[in-house]
Amino acid sequence: MLLKCLSELNGTSGAESLVRNFLRQQIEPFVETITIDKIGNLIATKNRRLSGPKVMITAHMDEVALMVTDITSDGYLKFRPVGGIDARILVSKPVRINESLVGVIGAKAIHLQKRRERQKALPIDQLYIDIGAKSKEEASSKVKLGDYAYFMTKFEPFGEGLYKGKAFDDRVGCAILAELLQRDYDFPLVAAFTVQEEVGLRGAKVAAYHLAPDFAIVIEGTVAADVSDRDEEGWVTELGKGPACSLMDKTTLYSPKLIKWVTDLAQQQGIPLQFRRGTSGGNDAGPIHVSKAGIPTIVLSVPCRYIHSLASIISEKDYAACLNLVDELLKDLPRMLGVSSIDKEENV
């Protein structure tokens, strides 16, 4: 399964090569050109000789992870997060370094902690990765500063119609985009698998400026906080209610016209759709929609419980509905943009 393979690959911000290489192999039979730009985005094109609106669809390849920043005299690895990770989830979790070395995240034993330390989560600077080394020299022979540590969760079906795995933000988007490239549309289509989203939306900024599309669709994984200890208004999205259409976040205020288009088409096609009830965070739409003279942009996200953790959960139905909705939007896009007919002759 494509999503399983993508979920289990390791690739954090600035180190997306395993994910990029895998995606390149998957999409190569279905596209005309594939390039890797200077920052590391994987760019694929279809129908580049057709006239009509140039549409860019994006999904980011990177996941949150940990970077080794120091090695102590007794062989423990100090680290910092790459992307947003809640320190409360880290203690005792296994991680993998350099694709083969296994470590466990540790902290001062609870009976050695002061009372005030036991009353709150330990900050990241009080945690370390134990790789079984007995000295700095031994640890340094296996790990170097700047190496990444990844969660080790295996992808598997979970509960009733759910999937459990790591890196669903945003390997769900990458999987959907790869599937869309197997389909045919009557206008130039550019797929941008972007880098470094988790540390500042960097790859999308470069891709949008270089490609200068007429329209952009961002496919994401987003927060689903639909758990019993929170009021419904704080759930943001819910599993099983379909993909989420963003209204506003910290980087983008989305066009009411485009939101209505998405909503109306979902209703016409009988595809479940929900709105993202929350304005925190941001995604690749931020730099895309303000690139050059401005690019109309929408975001559709697959709801994801326990996002940015070692084990996230998504609904199989939400994934399928997101894929179907983006497909329908692409089919309807020329009409929405006012293009009455698409000239299929080669550009001169």
From TrEMBL:
Its cofactor is a divalent metal cation. GO terms for biological process: proteolysis. It comes from the Bacteria. Its EC number is 3.4.11.-. Binds 2 divalent metal cations per subunit. It is an enzyme of class 3 (hydrolase). Keywords: Aminopeptidase, Hydrolase, Metal-binding, Protease. InterPro entries: Peptidase_M42, Peptidase_M42_aminopept, Peptidase_M42_dom2. The keyword Protease applies. One of its GO terms (molecular function) is aminopeptidase activity. Zn(2+) 2 binds at D169, E198, H308. Zn(2+) 1 binds at H60, D169, E220. The active site is at E197. Pfam families: Peptidase_M42. Belongs to the peptidase M42 family. This is Tetrahedral aminopeptidase. The lineage of its organism: Bacteria, Bacillati, Bacillota, Clostridia, Eubacteriales.
